[in-house]
Amino acid sequence: MCSFKNVLALGFASLAFNSLAASDYQDASLPTEQRVSDLLNQMTLQEKVAQLQTVWHEGRELKGPKGALKADMAKKILPLGIGHIARPSEDLSPVEGVKYTNAIQKWLIDNTRLSIPAIFHEEALHGHAASEATSFPQAIAMASTWDPALIHDIYQASAEEVRARGGNQALTPILDVARDPRWGRIEETMGEDPYLIAELGVSAVKGFQGDEQNIPENRVMATLKHLAGHGQPTGGLNIAPAPIGERALREVFLFPFEAAVKLAHVGSVMASYNEIDGIPSHANKMLLTDILRDEWGFDGLLVSDYYAINELITRHGLAGSKENAAIMALNAGVDVEMPDRDAFPLLEKLVNDKKVSMQKIDTAVARILREKFKLGLFENPYTDETAVDAIVGSQAHRNLAQTTAEKAMVLLKNDGVLPLDKTKVKNVAVIGPHADETLLGGYSDIPRQTVTILDGLRHKLGKDSKVEFSRGALITQDIQDPSPASVKAQSFSKERWNKENMKLADLSNAQALIDDAVALAKRSDVAVVVVGSNEGSSREAWAENHLGDRDSLNLLGKQHALVEAVLATGTPTVLILSNGRPLTLGNLYQDAPAIIEAWYLGQETGTAVANVLFGDVNPSGKLPLTLPKTIGQLPVFYNHKPSAKRGYIFGDTAPAFAFGHGLSYTTFNYSDLSVDASNAKANGTVTASFTLTNNGDVDGEEVAQLYIRDVFSSVTRPVKELKGFKRVALKAGESKKVTFELPVNLLAFYDAQMRFVVEPGEINLMIGSASDDIRLNESFEVVGEVSEIHQAQKAYLTNVSVQ
After folding, report:
1. Which ranges in the chain are annotated with CATH 3.20.20.300?
2. Shortest CA distance to 599 belongs to which of 236, 190, 276?
3. Strand segments (E) across 222-358
4. 549 catalytic, yes or no?
5. What is the phi/psi pair of residue 518, to 5°?
6. Catalytic residue (choose from 305, 436, 445, 549)
7. pLDDT digit string (tens) for 82-123?
8. Helix, strand, coil shares of the chain as percentages rounded to 5?
9. Domain 405-625 maps to which CATH number in 3.40.50.1820, 1.10.10.10, 3.40.50.1700, 2.40.40.20?
10. What digits encode the pLDDT tens for the residues 371-425?
11. Range 463-466 contact pairs with CB under 8 angstroms and sequence separation of 24 or more
12. Judging by DSSP bridges, how do beta strands 268-271 and 466-470 pair with one another?
């Protein structure tokens, strides 16, 4: 077997052999654009069209045993080269994955005329979705940290693991603004607020790609998903039309994407499945070209979502043939068809038939080549096989996963039960359908290790206490043996998420399960009840036999009755919600003395939960979206318009818990607000400073939040808009001065003529602990005339400092 150095040497030797004379594109010292132009000029139409294609299912035929490449299949599948190869790590160990990607690159260099390497793309929503990789908390849980620096580090770690296995591109982060919890993909998002998503999204992209123009050898190209409006589908049904006007589209749903393009210089964007006002995104030139490229200046790669070009025929009824679908997508701005070649191979004939211009092909191919040069693939196409095992699933990444899980938990309610006292708790009841399993969420594989809540508590308390388990309820019929006791248990998340025709659990034994849990609770000092959903009941609905959206947000099965029965025992109870979407709990909001929203916390779930329950870690997470009381309140988000919440007869418009909510084991005082509005005009800055104090006797972290309200305006504005936040660590009794520097241009909006303007008038500035917990409030006046703000003057983030 060749060593890495030998493979590298062979690769460069073959590249030199394949080229009769040295070409500019092989010279790394030349400007990228010169190299792109030189290579493009040497390519045939067939070679160009091959660069616009991806192989996935077909590409699986390339795999031999243990990562070997089937050369005969490569000759059949890749004779002209290829733009992308999808998910090469599937079903391979880390070392096997490196061998496989190296073998493909070597074959392409040795056996294609111009020796153009491939881009390998992978899924990495909350860690690389590959065997043995670190599984971080799901995206909605990561967003609950409200910690951009932490998000950066998570995605940097994910990039290192992807690149160590030979991958070059990650199909993430997801920047969809999520406005309907019935939607099964809400767990993949960073919540309901465009500003929060923009902050975290910019950090995610920089974590993936770094801050350099070219992408370092230990980073990958990021891909923003999904442009656009995907997060508010009609009825909460995946890929359904998005009922969005242009003003809301630009101000809410496009804002995070624009920020990531402008501030983080993302390399790739993926179009969305849905349609807006009758135009599916994959055929939407206004969205993909006029706005993304011409207005924002995006010069990267625009890729299709999986099979979405064909859905212009099969689902949208827009294109009557694959030829028409290919023309529509290419003309709209799509550069690469994913995950398999279907419509885009027809582009060769369409060019010859004068139905597609060569210029369109050249433009798309140039974008692909440009990203390959930026990734350094022509100079370094291979990956070191000897390094991968030390990087994938490393202890450092495991520690990061634990820290993230600890910061992600949101303490919704606490009537004095928490934190638990380790010296007084000797008998613990751990109850719930998945309390003995680590739920990972969608886009997961099997990490090297997981820690269940049951195991985490047993490890925390040791032999001095008894920690017993009762399942109490079942959710879905996905597990034949509901008592996982081996490494195989780690695979349930993946199996459940992929399972077709998911069914609810058989409830014939429901009462017996509840009775067993009640008996355990009665003989225990405390009951930790873990309920919620799983990856089979909340997930991406990608086909009619693979659904994941719901028409109810109630607890499935007999989980509600289980919690009521345990509460009725009188045993102090902590309710932990482990779920992918917000749930409605009815009377349990009032009856449960302590509630933690945990989402899916990743591979270190149990350790993190135990640390929070017993006070070794002070909870500090904040909700990145609103939790409704009932499904009848939908849509429910904090930044609604003034006329939206008149009221329900016999009902309530107030949510169960508001956006930004999250308690602590200490209390924080906000005081001494000072607002400097002397430069409160277009292109100016308003400064707001205040003192934040930890009033309690334990250390803690508070996420201070800045909101504004435009009191009177020419078009209606939300009642409240997040425009800044800062996570601040304070020791017991400590105070710090927090300063927000708010760009006035961040207050701009689209007026009645769709001009992006700053208008003079009163602005209410609010600072607090949550959107419904405002502690400080002061108004200031924006002065001057109406000022139109152009692209170069736009502001996306507020600068925040702490002293």
Report:
1. 32-382
2. 190
3. 223-227, 268-271, 275-276, 279-280, 301-303
4. no
5. -65, -45
6. 305
7. 999 999 999 999 999 999 999 999 999 999 999 999 999 999
8. 35, 20, 45
9. 3.40.50.1700
10. 999 999 999 999 999 999 999 999 999 999 999 999 999 999 999 999 999 999 9
11. 464/426, 465/425, 465/426, 465/427, 465/428, 466/426, 466/427, 466/428
12. unpaired
Q: What angle do CA 398, 401, 404 make, to 5 degrees?
A: 150
Q: How many CB atoms lie within 10 A of CB 676?
A: 14
Could you give the angle at which helices 194-209 and 255-264 cross, rounded to 10 degrees? Answer: 30
Place of tokens 């769709």: 754
Strand arrangement, sheet containing 223-227: 223-227, 268-271, 301-303
Q: In which residue are the tokens 């003995």 written?
A: 436
Q: What is the pLDDT of residues 29-65, one digit of tens each?
A: 999 999 999 999 999 999 999 999 999 999 899 999 9
| Two structure tokens written together for 437 | 């399993």
Dihedral of the alpha carbons of 699, 703, 706, 709, in degrees to the nearest 10: -120
What is the fold, at CATH topology level, of the domain defined by 668-802?
Immunoglobulin-like (2.60.40)
Q: Which residue has the tokens 């091959």?
A: 50
pTM: 0.95
Listed residue (172, 375, 140) closest to 270, CA to CA = 172
pLDDT of residue 21: 55
- 3-class SS of residue 389: helix
Alpha-helical runs (H) found in 112-180: 139-143, 148-164
The tokens for 572 are 């102090």
CATH class for the region spanning 32-382:
alpha beta
Q: Cα(257)–Cα(296) distance, rounded to whole angstroms?
A: 10
Cα–Cα distance, 433 to 27 (Å, whole number): 59
SS3 227: strand
Query: What residues contact residue 367 under an 8 Å CB cut-off, 6+ apart?
Result: 299, 300, 301, 302, 335
Three-state SS across 615-677?
A: CCCCCCCCCCCCECCCHHHCCCCCCCCCCCCCCCCCCCCCCCECCCCCECCCCEEEEEEEEEC
Task: For 333-385, write each residue's pLDDT tens digit.
Answer: 999 999 999 999 999 999 999 999 999 999 999 999 999 999 999 999 999 99
